[in-house]
Amino acid sequence: QSTTPLVKSEVSTNHISREKRKSLGGGKDDIMIETLSSEQAASHEVVPCTHQLRTNLEEGLTTAEATRRRQYHGYNEFDVGEEEPIYKKYLEQFQNPLILLLLASAFVSIIMKQYDDAISITVAVVIVVTVGFVQEYRSEKTLEQLTKLVPPTCHVLRDGKESMMLARELVPGDIVMLNTGDRIPSDLRIAESFSLQIDESSLTGETEPKHKETRAVPQASIGTGADVEHLTCIAFMGTLVCAGRGRGIVISTAANSQFGEVVKMMMGEESPKTPLQKSMDDLGKQLSIYSFAGRNVVDMFTIGVSLAVAAIPEGLPIVVAVTLAIGVMRMAKRRAVVKKMPAVETLGCVTVICSDKTGTLTKNEMTAQSIATPEGKLAEITGIGYSADGGVVQYQGELVQQWSHPEFARIIEAGIVCNNATIEVDKLIGQPTEGAIVVLAKKAQLEGVRGQYKRLREMPFTSDTKWMGVQCADAQGQNVYFIKDNQRKQCDQYSRQHILEIGKELGQKGLRVLGLARGESMQSLMFLGMIGMMDPPRPGAADAISIVKANLELVIRQVTVFYRASPRHKLKIVKALQALGEVVAMTGDGVNDAVALKKADIGVAMGVCGTDVCKEAADMILCDDDFSTMTAAIEEGKAIYHNITNFVRFQLSTSVAALSLIAASTMFKFDNPLNAMQILWINIIMDGPPAQSLGVEPVDDDIIRQRPRNTKQPMLTGKLIMDILACRQTTK
């Protein structure tokens, strides 16, 4: 046990009146607030933690004490600020430089008493911003249907009685009861554990559940706080109990929890502008300079409005908005929700994709792939995930069903009897490794053998022994022991070497290997064989990665795998790549991905298995978790920019003609031949429809394989200007 002293955090209460402090039970200038960090709680045994938090494991807190603590700690929920009013969301659409330039032109028209011009320009602007606002508002409404990460209720011990209450009412010191299927409502110090296993994949990315114990963790194993995997006596907010039961002491809530640290990191990062937004900003600045360059103040106000309206392709914001909106609708049909319209185009210029593996590239559903006997016989298993439909077990072309092949049936029997998982409507209740064996038994029509044995005793898996065993009685009342093991067992040298070679072959296929044995006692176990399993890739993920790699093969430096990256590590990776000039896409599904998702140029979250905070941070959400939708989004992004540049060429050629006419009339002191309203009519009404057709026309099928565009290159290049002035046809 560590000798590190428990630290009581003091919270200044100078802002609380003397009367208020008395009513809360305090009379000092500073009131001691009971709270512990996960590292502090993990380094001490249960009793010292209980004393520090001033609670009782058998009685819990009293209602009065919980109310008093809540006034200090607040509710167990995250303060993300008030929802932005709808009018502010609408006004944000006016921040586009082109829109601001048009509004400036309308203002000058009012000063010059050209009210018809001002009205025409304003109407055009309102149409543009409304199209963008409506589409983004619809996306936000879709997101409101997504589920919340923190559970609404939990089982708590209060006033000596167990009751169900809202998770938001928890305070440090509360005693929470845990059962299979429960979502952890706050950070807990485990005080009681009966084969308790918790799925922490949403926080750490690791698929294998963590076995939780009550004993303290040695100080040397705790680390810096960024790595939570070694805190085996702590349950973290938002994670899931997948097996066993227990109880825990609330040590921290809301923003003070490990999950809260991720949320604070995420809120501290600013989402970058998309490459399209940057390109449009640059284009707006260029056009602003060109429209007023070389004019004195009097001339600027005399013909400034006409020049500005002539130089600015008013249809451009409309076409961009409509083109993006169409892209968003196309993506919606492919089950992808785009929160911000410019994000559709961003994937078209991505140079690096940072993808989380567990739950993103894979299904996060452990699946048995092979069964191996000690003699080297190998049976293959088809089907993936927790559904047995269409899956079979085959050995040399023969179906393995029930006891048709006893050598394989005995392995499956041991796996299903030494098992606590169940599958209900293709949903796992229990841990993934055991779930894979349950599905395997269904495929071999052996799921019923579990009912042929009466379980007498269970020897749970621990981090020290790394095996699980059960003692059962068969139909004749004879004792039988079944063991699941992932450690080496002693046997004669030849057999041991042969078994290890088989296990190595399975491991080289990327499979997790589990050994099984049975016997009349723990001293007379017979090795039955091994089951190889894996978390299978999502359908289409391999093809999608191949296509993306072909798209990026000219610019990608190398493929790198980062193992067990924490949220802080992932953020550093994204920032480092952006500092090198890369356009970074990040895909993920867990809490540990949220910060990097927000910081990336485009963040893509999984809609089904993704956590709520992950979806909130992302720019795009894949509703069916299909990674292949990424390739469609890349194709859509490239097509959008390609069509927008085609429109710019077309519209600017019209603008050059209007500018030339106005400039010539000004040079020879003729009356202005075109006012702003006439130019608007030409740009929007006459040129709009053909230009819009350019904005939505289909592109070449091989656009996905084209090199990502250079985001540093402006849309309005010198070559493009010369082509327009020379009336030359350009292609891209």
UniProtKB/TrEMBL annotation:
Locate the Cation-transporting P-type ATPase N-terminal domain: which residues? 40-114
Q: What is its main location?
A: Golgi
Is ATP-binding among this UniProt entry's keywords?
yes
Reaction(s) catalysed (UniProt annotation) = Ca(2+)(in) + ATP + H2O = Ca(2+)(out) + ADP + phosphate + H(+); Mn(2+)(in) + ATP + H2O = Mn(2+)(out) + ADP + phosphate + H(+)
Q: Which GO terms describe its cellular component?
A: Golgi apparatus; sarcoplasmic reticulum membrane
What does the record give as EC number? Answer: 7.2.2.10
On whether Protein biosynthesis is a keyword of this UniProt record, the answer is no
Q: What does the UniProt keyword field contain?
A: ATP-binding, Calcium, Calcium transport, Golgi apparatus, Ion transport, Magnesium, Membrane, Metal-binding, Nucleotide-binding, Sarcoplasmic reticulum, Translocase, Transmembrane, Transmembrane helix, Transport
Annotated region (Disordered), positions in chain: 1-27
Q: Know the name of this protein?
A: P-type Ca(2+) transporter
